[in-house]
Write a structure and sequence with these properties.
Length: 121
Amino acid sequence: MIDMFPTPAGRYGQWSIISGLIGWVLVLVGGGLFWAGRSIGDDDQNLASLLIDFGRTFNGLAAVAWLLGVIFAAAGVTMIMNKVPDPGWRWIIIGFVVNGAPMVLVAGYVGYLKVTGQIKF
């Protein structure tokens, strides 16, 4: 069997990607729960608040997973020796993209809200 991640840096990149994908799954579940709680409205306040709280919890866990993924990717960068080609480099880059995309999306959305005047800070 061929090892897809033959170097320690590649393995850290793999863990970073896995952590990022877990974060995306958590945020999708959390967003669904949050949206479901908001859509219930006044019909059942207890259920609505429970769903919203669970949604927030899942979204918080997603942020932790993404932070862990960035840490794994950074650890992979430290494993790469200078001037030595490493096949794990591409996995580290993918890990940074998977875990950094939420930060870029949130920053872009806040920038959009600032430009349209919907928020002031």
